[in-house]
Amino acid sequence: MKLDHRAIIARSWPVALLLVAMSAIQSGASLAHTLFPVAGAAGTTSVRLIIAAAILLAVLRPWRKTISADAWKAIAIYGVALGAMNFLFYQALARIPLGIAVAFEFTGPLAVAVLSSRRVLDLIWVALAMAGLAVLLWPGSDTTGAVTWPGAACALGAGACWALYILFGQKAGAVHGMHSAVLGVTIAAVVIAPIGIWEAGATLLEPRVLLFGAGVAVLSTALPYTLEMIALPRLPTATFGTLMSLEPAFGALSGLVFLGQELGTWQWLAIGAVMAASIGTTLTPGAAPEPHAEEPPRPD
Fold first, then answer.
1. How far is Cα 198 from Cα 35, in angstroms, rounded to an integer?
2. What pTM value is reported for the model?
3. Contact 288/113 with Cβ under 8 angstroms?
4. pLDDT tens digit string along 241-260?
5. Which positions ≥6 away from 207 have C-beta within 8 Å?
6. Are 275 and 246 in contact (CB under 8 A)?
7. How many CB atoms lie within 10 A of CB 59?
8. What is the pLDDT of residues 284-298, one digit of tens each?
9. Cα distances (angstroms) measured from residue 233 to each of 167, 185, 227
10. H helices of the chain, where?
11. Is 288 helix (H, G, I), strand (E, B) or coil?
C-alpha cells in the first residue's frame, strides 16, 4: 500500500503546532520564574498580563464588535478566573517545581471532564489522579523537588480557576470567539495589575522586567494562542485532549532544562499518574467534549 505523504503531513502538522504551543507555554513559565527575584510573582503576573492584553488589543481590536450585556457577564467571570489562575499559578511556581505545579493545576480540567460525565469508569481515573497527588504531598516521599503545602494549595486554587475559565470561556467564546478572549485577558490584567504594582512598584518599569515580561507574554499567550487557533479546528477532540494531557510532562522537562529543577522517581511517576488520568477521561467512550475550538489556550 502506497503511503499518501500529503495525508500524513495534513494529520501531523496540527499536532506539531500544538506541541510547540505547549512547549512555548512552559518555557514562558520558566522565563517568568527568573523574574521572581526582581519583580515578585505578583509583579511578574501583572507585567505579563498587561503586555499580553496590549498585544491582543492592538492586533484584534475587539471594540469593533458589539457585545451584549449577557455576554459581558460571562466574559467578566472568564476574565477574573483567568487573572486569578495566572496569579495563583505563579504563586505556586515561586514555591514548588514547575512540573509539580502543572500536575496539581491539571486537577481543574480533569474535574470538569469528570463532572460532565456520568460514567462509573471515571471514578478509576479520579482515584488514579488522587493517588498521584497524594504521592506528591506525602512527607519525605522525595526530597529532590520539595513540595510545600502553600505551593500545592496555590496550584490547586489555580486548577479551580482553570475549571471556571473553561466553563465560562466556552460560554463567552461560543458567541464572540476570539474577541471574548481578548477582553478576558484585558479584564484579567485590570484585576491583577494593582496587586503587582503594590508589591513591586516602580520595579515593573525597569527595562529588564519589561523585556522579560514581553517575552513571557509572547511565549505564554500570543504565540500559543496563534498556534492553537490554527491547530484546534484540524484536530479530533480525542487527539487534542490526549496531547493536552502531556502538559505536566512538558512543565517538568522545562523546569529541569531551564531552571535545574530535578524531580525524583516517585514524583515523575506521580505526574505520570495525573497525565494517565487525564488521557483516560479523554479516550474512554462517552468522554466529555473538549473546550470550544475558538477558545484560547490556557495562558499559564
1. 16
2. 0.88
3. yes
4. 788 889 999 999 999 999 99
5. none
6. yes
7. 12
8. 755 544 444 455 555
9. 19, 22, 11
10. 5-60, 69-93, 98-105, 107-115, 121-137, 149-200, 207-217, 223-231, 237-244, 247-259, 265-283
11. coil
